[in-house]
Specification:
The protein has two domains: about 50 residues, Spermidine synthase, tetramerisation domain (Spermidine Synthase, Chain: A, domain 2, Roll), CATH 2.30.140; about 220 residues, Vaccinia Virus protein VP39 (Rossmann fold). Helix content is about 35%, strand content about 30%. A seven-stranded mixed sheet has the order 9-8-7-10-11-13-12, with helices on both faces. The protein is α/β, with parallel strands linked by helices. It binds S-adenosylmethionine. The site of S-adenosylmethionine has 25 residues, from strand 6, strand 7, strand 8 and helix 5.
Amino acid sequence: MSDWFEETVDPRLRLRLEILETLHEERHGLQRLVLFRSPLFGRVLALDGAIQTTEGDEFIYHEILAHVPVLAHGAVRRALIVGGGDGGMAEELLKHRTVEHVTLVEIDPAVIDFSRTHLRAICGDAFDDPRLAVEIADGAAFVADSRENFDLIIVDSTDPEGPGEVLFSEAFYRNCRDRLAPGGVLATQAGVPFTHPQTLRRTGAAHRALFADASCFLAAVPSYSGGAMAFGWASDDPALRQTPVETLSERFAAAGLATRYYTPEVHRAAFALPPYVSELLA
Ligand code: SAM
């Protein structure tokens, strides 16, 4: 009989993944960490029972959340990632040769150590790139204390429970806004709207209160059950969300990216919101 991993995030919905092999399990100070191999997703990392990333579908999540803001903005030199200890987001951002510096603020050093050893297919050589600076800190405290400016801030956090909860607060988003250079973009993990509408509702309301332009973009990530996932978009430059596909195509070609999910057309389509999603932002 096979073993199964059952995600326990939502009491109303259970996602079960077959386990070929459990590679690692540890309960340290901050979060319970499990790594297993699944026939469908390859290596899967779960924290406190919630799937964080998988070798099989990480490209969807990381490509859409990194390349949409970078290519819409067009001149990102300095970026901040809050969370993202698996290194997948840093790897995507650093593919842009125009990105000069990335700061990654992760609260749990075990996730980084672990990913460097066991999730090379996801983080690649990102942690060895001299353009990446890693800070071990609570992202909310880091942003509140920082005096640096960033062209892009990506919040690649766990769900709004436990240590990730603070990364969905209006106070945190306000501090992010204050750290953005003029015309900068804030892009955030905003949950699956079908199962967790309150996450997007709350994120959208906070972003609208703080920024001239706020919306979200969507991508279906198979290991996050419940349909398309939403990513919050906030900027004081409304033109960035409307960047024409021709401009995106020129930038995409110039960046020389080989992608499996992102294309300029997918980018534009990701902002087309079905009413059950746009109603949450109204
Ligand atoms: N793609 C994933 C998802 O949506 O499930 C997120 C992946 S990434 C591994 C999330 C990271 O955020 C975790 O490593 C966690 O330790 C980190 N994290 C949670 N709360 C944080 C906080 N307050 N400050 C910085 N990092 C935090």
